[in-house]
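User: Predict the complex with iron/sulfur cluster.
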Amino acid sequence: MSDAEHAVEPRESVCPFCGVGCSLSYVAQSGKSTGVEGPINTKGEICPKGAAAFDVVEHDDRLTEPLLRDGDGFAPVSWEEALGRIEDRLGTIVSAHGPDAVGFFASSNCTNEENYVLQKLARVLGTNNVDNCARLCHSSTVAAMQDRFGAGAMTNSLSDLGEADAFLVTGANPAEQHPVAFRSYLLPAVRDGATLIHIDPRANDTTDAADVHLPVRPGHDIPLLNAMAAVIVEEGLVDEGFVDRRTTGVEDLRTFLDEVDVAENADLAGVDESDLREAARAYGEADRAAAFTGMGISQHRCGTQNVHALVNLALLTGNVGRRGTGVNPLRGQNNVQGASDVGTLPSVLPGYRDVTDPEDRQAIADEWGVEPPAEPGLTEVEMTHAFGDEIRGAVVLGENPALTEPDGNSVGAKFEELDFLVVIDLFETETAQYADVVLPGSAWAEKSGTVTNTDRQVLRMRPMTDPPGEARRDLNIVTALGERLTDRSFRTAPEAVFDELTRVSPIHGGMSYAGVEEGGQRWPFPAGADSGTQILHRDRFASGERTAPLVPVEHVPPAEDTADDELTLITGRIITHFNSGALTRRSETLSRMADQDALRIHPDAAAERGIDDGDEVRVASERGEVTVPADVTPAVRPGTVFLTFHFEDAPVNRITGDALDPTAKIPEYKHTPVSVEPA
Ligand code: SF4
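Assistant: Here is the predicted structure with iron/sulfur cluster placed in the model:
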């Protein structure tokens, strides 16, 4: 790709650190970024992560040349040698074992175009073994919403959600994890009188603004949500007209809810019955009530069922298809929505076309000249479990599964079983330690292309600087791999790749790169639209149906019981760090604000174990342990402890388990029985 296709100018791009999608610019000579007015941050607001976003771009530890495994370390080599080695070794694996012996890990932190080319490469090679880390955060949300509504994305847009009279935020902490969305859209409405209900086992910055806090027992969201639905029925708060016009199955659900004992369910969920009833009334009585969901309910082996129970609440109360309503998953990375939209999932093609549908495969084949394989591939965790067996080689683009997948000690051992591993990244990450070849890729401010934010808006990434040394733009790297590993040529300019995407992906149809450049376009994008569809499911659901089903949802207990002498570990994020911390831990500014992890533990649990605030404690499950200081705080419910997943010196996923949701294959990160004792 020529430099002209990536003309570098000092202009704005999109923050890499969460799905909100704030616009940023570079402050010349300062090494810092500043917010600029954009489609989401309309007044130029940003949070501490956004302000430090350039720290990673200009970091001294950036990889600047390709590396080849040399004993226990790496030796720098030319691009020709590195790409030649990959062609040779992956080619040998494909010849010996077939294309399904290779797995591709796409990135929710890479552009739509980079992810589109990576999944095309996998499928032209002959495998659907391609997945992205949405598998680990919201695959259950997507599965449930796709099943009920026909689209697994935010039903509404951030800008109309400010019109809600009540917010139900469950399993999310937007005040810290999506700060600009919280401060610009939710908080003003709350200050204006909207009710905020917060469901979370840990009180946090979002709780500070809440009217009702339900500190649910981890793994018991279904009894809580069913009890809220039962109160809504019992107190005549059902929107009968909406239910009649837009749903099916209400009689079965009423029969099921008639059997729900609200007091018993509140007890099982570990919340006060009167608080639960207050929350149900606030949600049911509101003219417009909007639900926000996060990983607190998605990362369970019953994650899909949790979201089904939440969807019931929205449908029973008519809170779908209008401004200020809906079910709205808050996405983690800056392109976690887009990576899935463009097809880096093992069971769907670009635009959620079904790999098992011959017509969908043919539509893709008409553009590619190659029909994708018909069998769904393996999901991310399934691929890792198959390393050294069914999967012999892997390509990891901009992700860090060695730190982010559950049961981390086993994950490390599985990586060692691979015959050949390629990692494309900015740094020698924990995953790169297992690689045979490491290719130096591009940071967010060096990229040209598009990302799709949490409310389905496609936003333009613009390069502000060049990659350092011999590092290359990720789109160049994946297209080069495609041309080395297959007999096809791949489009290399971001605009050409996006145009191809609009031809094969129904949800992107009608969009244009120029239109995105002018100010963002939101999918779906019907003919004649200027900015896409702000509110889904208005008259018909995305499924094409006028109605969506109401379904009884039974409680599914967590995979592992917490014994009397154990505590239940949950994990989450803090405002200054992002996912595995591979990027944010390298920011001096952010690390000064929070440079290590701490176990949040309730004073009662700490006293029982002789633990004082600041003491080093050992946190262990049957899979592993970490040692961290204790933060003794009543903010976590008794019986529950909290750690983040950002810190390499306290790799919490050595402890977490890999029980999977049977539908979405998401791991149960949010319920791990642990012993806690002074170190
Ligand atoms: Fe970046 Fe999200 Fe903060 Fe906006 S809210 S500046 S997108 S991390």
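Residues 363 and 651 are 44 Å apart (CA to CA).
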